[in-house]
């Protein structure tokens, strides 16, 4: 009887621990991402290094409601010099961190990205990167002044 009960308990434990419970999953994702962030930077930094390399010029980040003039000049100058660069603009969002940006490579490719982080984002954070159409032209948003590729 005791052996059968022990065997039943072992089988129940193995079935229960086979897949993580849904309630624990966000915390596990958060913990794993925090470890990756400590080790090699946040998701946005890792993805930008993958696209433009480690020697890219960091034009900076414009916080919400700040002037984008300095960052825009840096991006346009780096693009004109065929230099790898990255620049990002923070956007207004509710319950999330949202940043748009541009990544330029030394071989003349330009990418636009959007970074999302928050409780309503799948896996808590994501980066979407897409290559800009050629020929590349920059367009500034009327209200925020941030640059888009067009």
Q: Can you offer a commentary on this structure?
A:
A hairpin with a 5-residue loop joins β2 and β3 (97-104). Residues 16-22 have low confidence and may be disordered. The strands form 2 sheets. This protein has a 5-stranded mixed β-sheet with strand order 1-2-3-4-5, sandwiched between helices. The chain has one domain. It is an alpha+beta fold. The termini are far apart. The protein has helices at residues 2-16, 25-40, 43-52, 69-80, and strands at 57-62, 85-91, 97-104, 110-117, 125-131, 138-140, 147-149.
Q: In terms of topology, how is this protein built?
A:
Blueprint: H1 2-16, H2 25-40, H3 43-52, E1 57-62, H4 69-80, E2 85-91, E3 97-104, E4 110-117, E5 125-131, E6 138-140, E7 147-149
Parallel strand pairs: 1-2
Antiparallel strand pairs: 2-3, 3-4, 4-5, 6-7
